[in-house]
Amino acid sequence: MPTTLRIATPAGHGLAASLYMPSQPPKKAVLIAPATGIGRRFYHAFAEYLVGEGYGVLSFDFQGVGDSLTGRLRDCPASLVSWGTNDLSAALDELTRQFPQATSHLIGHSAGGQLPGLMPNAARLSSLLAVAGSSGRIANMPASYRPRAELFMRVIIPLSNALTGVSRTDLVGMGGPLPREAGAQWARWCLGRGYVETGFGREVQEHCYDTLDIPSLWLNASDDEIAVNANVDDMLRVFSGLAPRAEKRTLIPAEHGLGSIGHMGFFKRGSQVLWPIAAEWLARQA
């Protein structure tokens, strides 16, 4: 069982985290960065698998999500920008404190793979593995899915923000409800081009998307209507420092004996046949 931690952040709030220690001191440690609105417990089985492969692992909840929510959600100031600049960076600091002799690697799910370019300490990472990581640009999504995404981003998020003070993303099965600014930025960025690039020069004043230069693997699924190949390419265009040597792989469910993978399925216990892909890639990294 993991150890529960509270990570202090530069912004003054704490993050709930789970620490997974292997039986021997690891040479590599993995930070699991969650998708938007998804709590760290969703990744528990995957984290245990990595520990069994000899990796040290730390998972956490972004501010305003899961056990990192304190007080009322409508009063939470968290945004996608603060998740990247503050929360991800604090979690990486804790990972390196817990595993000082190990190299640090990030496995990011959706937003967890999109936001590392905002981390002031991202240069300490040795690799990035992004699962369902893409720009999420609505214009690139399949025509059959696009009306649902448009309704979500153009109507549900702004309307729920105005009426309740929080983004009711849970109403359409997109994780739990979000702090209003996190939801508002999510909508703006997915309606734009290049996701976080939409905020460059506005809410994003500093970043390392063009300078971060580490090995990266981008996994998406053929039945994922959000992280389609065009959106993976759109995100890699923004990660211009990563792009020259980035690896991409599209997973086809039937080839792995699975009925579906979609945007969320990679980390589910029933998809553990996919997990050696991540472990074997990590094993090849420095």
Give a written overview of the molecule.
With 286 residues, this protein is of the alpha/beta class. The chain has one domain: Alpha/Beta hydrolase fold, catalytic domain (Rossmann fold, 3-Layer(aba) Sandwich). Helix content is 29%, strand content 19%. It contains seven helices and ten strands. Helix 4 (146-164) runs antiparallel to helix 5 (180-191). The longest helix has 19 residues, at 80-98. The two termini are 28 Å apart.
Please, how many domains? 1
Oligomer: single chain
CATH C-level label? Alpha Beta
Mean pLDDT: 97
Strand content: 15-25%
CATH architecture: 3-Layer(aba) Sandwich
Specify the overall morphology. globular
Radius of gyration: 17 Å
Main sheet: strand order: 1-2-4-3-5-6-9-10
The helix/strand series, from N terminus to C terminus, equals EEEHEHEHEHEEHEHEH
Overall structural class, as computed from helix and strand content, comes to alpha/beta
Distance between the termini: 28 Å
Could you tell me the number of beta strands? Answer: 10
